[in-house]
Structure formats: C-alpha cells, structure tokens
Fold:
Amino acid sequence: MIFFSRTQSSKTTCLSLRFPNTGINVKNLVLGFYLIFAVTTAFGQESEVVSGSYSKAPLKDIILDLEKQSGYAFFFLPDWVSKDTITVTFNEQPISSVLDQVLEGTALNHYLLEQEKRIFLLENTIVYDELPLYFFGRDSSDVNSGTVRGARNMPPPTFFNEDIRQTRKKYGVSKVGKADATKLKQAYMLNGTAVNARTGEAIEDLAIRVKGTNLLSVTDANGTFKMELPAGYNVLSIRAMGIAATEREVIMYSDGSLTFQLEEGLQQLDEVVVEADAAKNVEDAITGSEQIDSEESKNIPLVLGERDILQVAKALPGISSAGEGATGLNVRGGKTDQNLVLLDDAVIYNPQHFFGIFQALNPFTTKGVDIYKGAVPVEFGGRLSSVFDIRTKNGNVEEISGEGSIGPVTGNLALEIPLQKNKSSLVVGGRGAYADWILRSLDDEALKNSQASFFDGILKYHNRIDDNNEVKATAYYSRDAFSITSDSLYNYDNRLFSVRWDHRYNEKTNGALVVDNSRYGFGIDFDGEANIDFDLDYTISETGVKYKLRSLLNEKHTLDYGVAAKLYSVNPGSIVPRGGESNVNPVFIDQEQALEGALFVGDEINVGEKLLLNLGLRYAFFAALGSGTQRTYQDGLPRNESTVLDTISYGNGEVVKTYGGPEARVSARYLLKPDLSIKASFNNSYQFLHTLSNNTTVSPIDTWKLSDLNIAPQQGYQASLGLYKNFKENEYEFSVEGYYKKMDNVLDFKTGANLFLNENVETEVLQGDGTAYGVELLLKKNRGDFNGWLSYTYSRSLYRFDSEFSEERINNGDFFASNFDKPHDVSLITNYKFSRRYSLSANFVYQTGRPVTYPIGTFRFNNADFVAFSNRNEFRIPDFYRLDLGFNIEGNHKKNKLAHSFVTISVYNVLGRNNPYSVFFVTENGEVKALQSSIFAIPIPSITYNFKF
Structure:
C-alpha cells in the first residue's frame, strides 16, 4: 500500500512518500500514475504570471517565492532542491514558462495541475499522462502509423527493486540526464569517464559491459568512453586489470555524462580486458596511432638497464633514428624536427640525454605516450610527421608511495605525496647520471679529464576539486653537460611548465584550458691556452595557451573544437669573450619573434554499426614579428651578397611576414567483420619551425629557425590505408598499413654552409621537395607466458633540391636518399615468463645501413691534392643489427613488506656487433683512408635494482 501526506511548515510545502513493505522504490515515478486521474481537467487553463530576479539564489528559496506569488502548492522532496543555486530574471511570465527557465540547468522537471493549483517537481523523470499503445496490446504497425493519439512508442516508466541490488547498493543509483516528453527515445548516449579513486588518474582499457546484452565499450587513454544504453534502468559490469571488479546501476533519462571513481584490486587480468584492447585496434577510426605504457619498457632490455619509452617506440613500425646514439626520431621518412613532442601539453624540444642514448624522462613519473604518425587529432598542429603526447602520472592521494632504481650509470627516485586525502597530491621525481667514472677508467689519456653527466627533475601537482573541476600543473627541468676535450664544455637544457584546468560544463560538454611555457638552450664554454676563450649561447622559448571543448551532440556526433596560440622567442646565437684577456670579438644575432595560432573543429560521426568517420578542419596562422632586419633579394637569382636589393628594418612587434592556411583531418573506419576493419586517412599540415644543421646526424647543438621573409614554412600531405585483424579470440593482433607523404619547402644546406652565428642564414640554405612512402606490418601477441611483437617496415625517404643555378642544386636536381633513409627495418620484442617472478626478454633489431657520401677519387690542381666526392648520399654504411637479452627477477609477492623489488640483468649488443655510427675519411701520406666510428662495439652488461613502496 502507498500513502501520500502533505505537510506544511513555515510556508514550506513538501511531498512525503512512504512505501511500507513493498520493496519497490518508485519515488516520483509512481506519482505520475496517481496524477493521471486529474490530468483531463488540466487542459485549456491559463497559468498565473510571476516576476523575479535572482542571482545565485538557492533553488529552494526561489521555489518558496514562486509558491507565495502564484498561489500554487509545490510538491517535492527537500533534498531535490538543496544543492542548486540559480541565476535567472523574468517579468510577468506564466508560471510554467518560469519553471522551464529556473529548472533548465538542474535535474528537475515539473508538472502542473491548473485546476487544483498544484505543481509537482520530479527528479530526472517526467509524469506519464498517457499510456503507450503496447499497454493495450496494439501491434507495432499501429504504433508506427501515428494515426491515433498516443501512438508514440515511448519507453515505459523506470522501476528498480531494492531487494535484489546486493553489493551494488553501497554505490547508489546513478541517474543520467533529465527526461523530456518531446524527446523520448528507446536508447540514450552515455559519455563517461573512469578514474582511480585513490590516485585520481584516468583508467584506460577499462571494459564496461551492459549486463544481459552484448553492449560493450572501452575507455581510451584519458579514461573516457561512450556507449548507447537502453532508456531506463541498466546494470554496468566494469572490469580492468588492477581495478576491483564492480557493478554500477545507471538510470538513463536522456543523453548525458557520468564519472566512475573505481577502487584498485589485485585480481589477475580478466579476459574481457584483452578483448576490449584488441577491439580498440580494430574499431578506432584513427590510422597510424600507437600507445605505449611506461610499464611496457620494464621487461625490454635496453642499454645500461635504463627504461626508455622512446627506445621502445623505435621498435614500432615507421619509427627509427639516424643511428645508434643519434638524437631524435624519424617518423615515416620525416626529419627529427617534424615531430611534436609534448610533456603534459608543453613542448619538449630535446627529450633525450647524452646524444640519444638515454631518454630525458623519468620512467617512474611517466604514465605513457600516445603516438600519432598517420591521422593526427585536430587539436594538434605545427609539425609535419608525428605527435608524441607524453603523460605523467597523477600522485597517490591516500598515502605516500614511491619508486626508484639504481643502475651502473644512473640513479632514479620518484615520490607520490598526498596533500589532501582523496583529492590532491604531489609527484616529485629526480634522476641523475654518474658516468664520469667510466670515462676516467678508460685506458685513454685523452679522456682522463673528460666528463659526461646529466640530470632531470619533475614536479606535478594534481587536484580533483570536485566532480566538475580538475587542475594539473607540471614543472620540468633537465640539463646535460659533456666535455671530451679539456678546453670545451658543452651543455644543453630543457625547461617547461604547464597548467591545465579541466571543467565539465554539463552532462554533454567538457572543456580544458591549458597554459604552458617551454625553453630549450645550449651553450659552449671554451677555455683554451690561447687568448680566444669565449662563451657561446643559444635559446628558443615559447609560451602557449589552448582552450578546447568536447561536446556529445547525440549518439551519432561527438564534437571537438577550440582555439590555440603561442608566442615564440628565439635568440639565434651569441658569442662573448670569456675573461678579460680574451681577444674574441662579441657577436650578437638579432632576436626572432613570431606568433602562431589555430582554430580547429572536428566531428566523430557514427554513421552506423560498420562505418565511423572522423572529420576535422584546422586553420593555422603564423606571423613573423620584429624587431630586426630582413634582406630582400632579386627575383629569379640565387640569394647571395651580390643579389641583395634592400635591407628592411622592423620595429618591436611589427609584422614581417604572415603565412597560414587550412589543414584537413579526415579518417574513416569500415568494419568488414567484428574483428576485421579497413581504415583510411588524409591530412595536411604546416610547420613554421625549422632546424639548421649540416651534420650527418642530429646534434644537441642544432639551432631552430623561424619562418620569415625569406624562409617559407614547410608543408606536408599524407594519405594512408590500412587493414587490421585479430585472431584466436583476440590473442593475436595484426595490422598492415601503407602511406604516402609529400613535403614542400623542406630545408637543407649548401655544400660548405656556415649556419651558426650567421646573420643572413637564408643565403646558406635551400628549400626543396620531399617524398616518403612505405608499408608497415605489425604482429602482436597480447597474452600468455610468451608474448611480444614483431614489426617490419619498408620505407623510402627522398629529397630533391632543384634550381636553374648550380649553387642551389643538389645531385643535379634529382631525388636522393635522406640521411635517415633505411628501406628495411625489422624489430622483434619477446618476453617469456617462467613463473610470476622470473622472465627472459629479448630485443632484436635489423636496419639497412643509412646513406653516406663517399670520396670517389682525387685530382691535382695548382700543385695541391683535392678529393672528388660522389653525389650526396649515393652510398650506404654497413647494415645495422643488434641483439639484447635481459633476465628479470621479481621480488617475492608478500603483501606486508617495506618495498617490492625488481632486478634486471641485461646484456646490450650480445653479439658484440661493431655497428658503424658513421664513416669518415682522412688523408695520410697522400692516401685517402676510410675510418669507422661506433658507439657500442662490444657487449655491454648491466644490472639494475628497482624498488617500489
């Protein structure tokens, strides 16, 4: 039996509901059936008019005021109106219209009985004032015909039974959206986020399944997911590795969003998680994307036992470097400066230590990296080849924890410190190298006074203020210093800072505001015996702001849009005398400034079960700014001193030259079968930054140059097509993807060019065309005692610099191989678990030798001997191959102990292969001799102790 009673106290009118012995919680829904008997008298009446103006007023106060003005009796539960504050103004408007405005941003609906002067407030739901046709047994043809009143096949009212909820009861029922009688549907879209209740970190690869159905969704790297749920009551089964299995009740009243805070668990990897991860590879529309978790580098043997996600990235198809120990990565035939590397939304210009041997990222504070080498998301721009979006961990919000390692060359420590329990935390990480002892121990007198060291530190603050607001701030600094000779000390450093505010505006829209600053610089301190001591310095910095939003329009459209801008400041180089006795003349190159901006919008369109589209448009803008001077040259002639027309001076902030244009982001996925899909994409982009280098491989002291009056931005166009397939119940994952890339205005240098400290560097560089194409294959085994992956890439990277003038032409204007062109690249990563504590890992790499320019003869002129060289990059150094082995020993798995340990014993370059780093030529006694240099020509054993508490 259900009883209703009306109580009044201090003019407050509430509806009290009692449900003795029923076990059925129908709250406000049953109210609708009670009201049906009074509905027929409610039509055709005029509403009372009311006026009011409120600023952040409690909803309850507004309701009481409206009750007083209108004479209507309001029925509601007090907790429904206790949490919202409203800002609204209305004047002489009907009470129904006013309530629409007042309740617009809340979860409440209203229902009026004009004749009885009553207004019923309802949380989430609505009053059903007519029964659907299926209630009377009418068939679907009648329902769909719409020929009779009430033919709409609306979903039935929602009920749930308290007695069968069991362990789900402690979480409560989550109500999503607010019902609208004009928009009732059989299913609604849920836009969800999953976070770790202890750390606040997003949980990726979490499987959410609707019990009793085949509906399944998986969270992405940001912990977000979307899925269509039947209207009304649903039970979601939630599973992921390391997360306690749970079930959550959700009532869908309309499209909306929901955040799950989940507890950690110690269960083994559930099979459904593996299936979901594999399905993500097949079902996503994005081509050429990869994800690496920092933990994935734990069992891969790398040089000197260092974990390194960037070295792991090189084992994936389409990603390589110019050589062992070379700084920078080459992605799909692109130069190293064509990669956008982000650390918590801020650019890091050189993410590697010690010429690329170590990464400049603390592996214990790094969560993972998303790599985009094909279809780049619309929010990213400014580079032609790829995006490396590196994310750091959020700290532990419950207790102090940490992780560290001690190796033969480096030491590492990271601490997670809770600041406010279950809300905010601080992550502090520090890492340093102590490699000087290795150089001093070598039997080479020239290296006795050498040094090589580096360190990096990171600080991250994270605060989940409430369900709608989250703040993250990251500060990072790294520095390298090395000296191979006794008179020169080289150094380079990265510094960055970023603040990100994530805000949920409503159930369908989330936004993020990011402010960041990055700086990269290098210097040379020369202190020799002659009076030519000097200090050399170079820096580039940028300050950026980005505001982006994501809106769930409906079940078919998810919109991403925003605006971004950044200000560049470049000190192209300076040299000053060191000490009072130096005879060096100071040199200062004019500072460069520029403004870069972009507007972007993208739409993920779910056309049907098989076809998914991702369409985006980005408009990029760039303006080179003063102060400084720029030369103009005669058209149709080489740029040199003899063709200068004029020198123009620009004031501070004055626009020198503008560039820009639209960038397309188009990708599509079509499901041939549930485990087989075909994907295609096309994108184009602008790059307004260039590196200047005439080294064979990338150096930490290469300089960055902004586009200006004489150097145009690079442009790139890429198309890709791929096939993705899973086998044996998703245990195996296979993909094959081909791509073609065209590049315009890429930079190279003239023979004998002087690039550094050159006021007119445009006279030393050339801009030409580039072409890259290839096929990438990846076979991955995702589970089992034996797991890993095999990747193969066939690729070509070619450049052409043609002109009617010989001094601006390379290789007679024909295409030639780039410095990093390696047609064949094979990587094999394997791991075999003997038990939960012992495993063996192997890493094998084979690459075609990179191109090189050889001398092909000598000639004598004016009684002097000269060397004649081949065309640029006409020959190749020997092929590269290397095998690494590692044995991993986990500590015991006792629960109550001070720290968990992990020991890695590894041998880098087990075969002792003398892989050439470079080949160069010297003349001795009138004879030209070829010499080869190598980085690691012998096996390098190491042992690293890792601990976690």
Residues 1-46, 140-152, 163-168, 267-278 have pLDDT under 50 and may be disordered. The chain has three domains: 3-129, 160-268, 289-948.
